[in-house]
């Protein structure tokens, strides 16, 4: 009799939940139909997981498993181009499984009020019909550094490593949009990806953000299928994603299936309310801020990271310590990087390289000497081309804990 019962709504929901849990576990739950209702698989509740970070190095710091969020320890970001197995992962929902993705038939639909005609391109058509470009572009999560804010802000407690810079290869978004034909009322683009909302409800989007047309039409704004010359890692958006260097990485939609050209600011999931917004005017720590007083984050603020040595390094007295790292400044260039060994009382200049291209992070280095034995902190401070410097300890507090661009500090013992 059992199997004669039509697929009821309840059964459907139950099936969806099991499927969702299967995604999170990385494998279907074979005897799921016997699992007591409401039971959470032990692997999801105690952190045991099987390949929750496929394609990533075990040194990645996993903040959450559902959704998966992982950051890179700063000393492992020492390469000019962040290797794909060390690039941070920020998921708002459940990514598609590898076996659900067919790169050969993958299609991106372009639609919206401000597009002349709706049009779809397979990934193969995009590759064949438009010129390819490769740019080194820095992506940083808007919430990177959130864990330092006080009072604390809810959300992933990112330390320093939700940032990376890779060489992304793809086609220019502007070439594709111009080929389809933009209307003069185009204001914003909104993306949609193949990932699933945590609830398992296929009608909800985990995230659907975008950028204004001015950013969308920049030369470096890409629909990208490769990272450092290879396929994108699954967790970073395989087979194709958007990349908008210098803006909160939340603008750069992964597993890209659809782009809507809007005649108003896009109103998708996590575009509205308090998400990826900061108070338009500074507020006192702990303040409640109404939605109407919150402004969308655009270009990210100037910031730097010391990637060598690792914090906690020990050196012999009388020796010089070489330090190096990266600095980036949203849409701007970094003009100067300085370091301090006296808690910011005095600053010394670092050597600084120009960016490989616009929106790429820049490399700095210095040789540091210490006057005597003891505990020191080396602080790095970058200054952008508008003269804006990183704050020493914390920038202005905001309700969701975005844009912490405080100076990076590493501990050094001279013995
Ligand atoms: N489809 C989709 N795109 C997405 C997200 C997501 O959850 N789903 N997360 C966004 C956020 S908040 C960030 S910080 C970046 C992270 O990119 P990464 O995981 O490749 O580092 O992807 C953005 N694009
Ligand atoms: Mo993010």
Verbal overview:
With 415 residues, the protein is mainly β. A hairpin with a 7-residue loop joins strand 18 (334-340) and strand 19 (348-349). Strands 6, 7, 9, 10 and 11 form a five-stranded antiparallel beta sheet that branches. It has a five-stranded mixed beta sheet with strand order 16-23-22-18-19, with no helix packed on it. Strands 5-4-12-8 form a four-stranded mixed beta sheet. 41% of the residues are buried. The chain contains five helices and 23 strands. The protein has helices at 9-25, 42-45, 123-129, 173-180, 213-216, and strands spanning 61-65, 68-71, 89-90, 107-111, 119-122, 132-140, 163-172, 188-193, 222-227, 230-231, 241-243, 256-262, 277-279, 294-296, 303-308, 313-315, 321-328, 334-340, 348-349, 351-352, 362-368, 374-384, 408-414. The chain has a domain at 61-296: Sulfite Oxidase, Chain A, domain 2, CATH 3.90.420.10. Bound molecules: the ligand Nc1nc2c(c(=O)[nH]1)N[C@H]1C(S)=C(S)[C@@H](COP(=O)(O)O)O[C@H]1N2 and molybdenum atom.
Indicate the topology:
Blueprint: H1 9-25, H2 42-45, E1 61-65, E2 68-71, E3 89-90, E4 107-111, E5 119-122, H3 123-129, E6 132-140, E7 163-172, H4 173-180, E8 188-193, H5 213-216, E9 222-227, E10 230-231, E11 241-243, E12 256-262, E13 277-279, E14 294-296, E15 303-308, E16 313-315, E17 321-328, E18 334-340, E19 348-349, E20 351-352, E21 362-368, E22 374-384, E23 408-414
Parallel strand pairs: 4-12, 16-23
Antiparallel strand pairs: 1-2, 2-3, 4-5, 6-7, 7-9, 8-12, 9-10, 9-11, 13-14, 15-17, 17-21, 18-19, 18-22, 20-21, 22-23
Molybdenum atom is lined by residues 90, 141-143, 249-250.
């Amino acid at each position: 009799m059992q199997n004669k019962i039509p697929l009821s709504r309840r059964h459907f929901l139950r099936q969806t939940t099991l499927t969702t849990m299967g995604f999170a576990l990385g494998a279907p739950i074979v005897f799921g139909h016997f699992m007591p209702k409401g039971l959470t698989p032990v692997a999801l509740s105690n952190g045991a997981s099987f390949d929750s970070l496929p394609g990533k190095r075990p040194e990645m710091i996993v903040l959450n498993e559902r959704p998966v969020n992982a950051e890179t320890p700063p000393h492992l970001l020492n390469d000019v181009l962040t290797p794909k197995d060390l690039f941070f992962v920020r998921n708002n929902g459940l990514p598609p499984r590898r076996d659900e993705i067919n790169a050969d038939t993958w299609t991106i639909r372009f639609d919206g009020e401000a597009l002349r005609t709706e049009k779809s391109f397979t990934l193969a058509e995009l590759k064949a019909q438009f010129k390819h470009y490769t740019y080194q572009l820095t992506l940083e999560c808007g919430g990177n550094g959130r864990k330092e804010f006080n009072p604390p802000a809810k959300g992933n407690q990112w330390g320093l490593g939700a940032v990376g810079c890779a060489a992304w290869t793809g086609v220019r978004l502007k070439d594709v949009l111009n080929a389809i034909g933009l209307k003069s009322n185009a204001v914003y683009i909104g993306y949609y990806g193949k990932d699933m909302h945590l609830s398992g409800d296929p009608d909800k989007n985990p995230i659907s953000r975008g950028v204004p047309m001015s950013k969308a039409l920049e030369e470096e704004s890409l629909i990208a299928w490769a990272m450092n010359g290879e396929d994108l890692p699954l967790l970073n958006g395989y087979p194709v994603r958007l990349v908008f260097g210098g803006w909160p990485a939340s603008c750069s939609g992964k597993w890209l299936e659809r782009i809507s050209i809007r005649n108003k600011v896009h109103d998708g999931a996590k575009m509205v309310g308090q998400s990826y917004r900061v108070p338009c005017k500074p507020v006192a720590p702990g303040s409640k801020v109404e939605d109407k007083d919150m402004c969308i984050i655009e270009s990210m603020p100037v910031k730097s990271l010391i990637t060598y040595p690792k914090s906690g390094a020990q050196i012999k007295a009388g020796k010089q310590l070489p330090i190096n790292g990266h600095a980036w400044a949203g849409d701007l260039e970094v003009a100067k990087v300085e370091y301090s060994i006296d808690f910011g009382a005095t600053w010394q200049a670092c050597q600084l390289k120009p960016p490989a291209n616009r929106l790429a992070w820049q490399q700095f280095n210095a040789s540091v000497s210490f006057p005597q034995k003891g505990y020191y902190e080396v602080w790095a401070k970058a200054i952008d081309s508008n003269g804006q410097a990183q704050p020493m300890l914390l920038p202005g507090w905001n309700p969701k804990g975005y844009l912490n661009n405080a100076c990076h500090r590493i501990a050094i013992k001279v013995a």
